[in-house]
Amino acid sequence: MRILITGGAGFIGSHLVDALVDKHEVVVIDDLSTGFKENVNKNAKLFVTDIRNKEEIFKIFRDEQPEVVFHLAAQINVRRSVKDPAMDAEINILGSLNLLEASIKFGVKKFIFSSTGGAIYGDTEIIPTPETVEARPVSPYGCAKLSIEKYLHYYYVNHGLRYTSLRYANVYGPRQNPHGEAGVVAIFLDKMIKGENPVIFGDGKQTRDFVYVSDVVDANLLALKHLDIVDIFNIGTGIETDINTIFKILNSFFENKYKEIHAEAMPGEQRRSCLSYEKAERILGWKPRIDIETGLRKTHEYFKKKI
Predict the structure, then answer these.
(1) How far apart are CA 5 and CA 218, in angstroms?
(2) Cβ(53)–Cβ(90) below 8 Å
(3) Which fold has domain 2-171+212-235?
(4) Does 168 participate in catalysis according to the annotation?
(5) What is the pLDDT at residue 294?
(6) pLDDT, tens only, 123-161
(7) Fewer CB within 10 A of the end CB, N or C, for the chain?
(8) Closest CA to 71 of 128, 29, 23
(9) Would you give the distance in Å from CA 200 to the centre of its chain?
(10) pLDDT by residue (tens digit) across 207-223?
């Protein structure tokens, strides 16, 4: 099968490319703004371009004729989206529409979208949060992701383009960019390995659902396996972990030499976020396999070698 992956030089996308190249022809689109060329498997075909460039996108689709599209390319910094909502929408909405238009024009069979869990629901009283909870995003980033899910429904109903939307929890693991991507695990490890003390914003009791990158890749592979399923799924662990706990586990890898330093809380930061994966387990047969301590240790080993 010929598969196109946007954002395939990035954190999650490059792991997905690695998982697919042995059995499929893989084409990657990435503008390398936060991804790295060296992340891309040598057996994949890389096009360095921006998803906002409609002419280039249509040319790639016409020439490569992908059967399935995995759309991971995005502006993913929530704080940046708040500062510049128009820029976020230009990339995450208009760029995505270029891909959807190309998909229907050139006969794509399935569109698998990397959405967001935490940013799409906002603060909710139901923890772990199922897909049945009304999405009330409180950031332009979350609004854009929800918008594309609505567009996916439109393209399915009106053009027959099948889709699966995967709402990720807080993904972490090897290759995460501590500078271009807002991942607390990568940011903390980057500082610790460089001998700098990380800073925890607020009291550190804010919780997130941390899901390891290989589990996220498995969810994408199952979405590919079930080509006929058209639906939206949470991809998380169903377990809340606070930032203080993340710091303590990581600090244990450094013989607890770092101090727990706190700074003023970020305005508007979500207090709790945790996703129910019951639907993904029931329909796709997916569930997380890597616990937080194992995942953090694997990530630490990668960053230690890299830095």
Answers:
(1) 15
(2) no
(3) Rossmann fold (3.40.50)
(4) no
(5) 98
(6) 899 999 999 999 999 899 999 999 999 999 999 999 999
(7) C
(8) 29
(9) 23
(10) 999 999 999 999 999 99
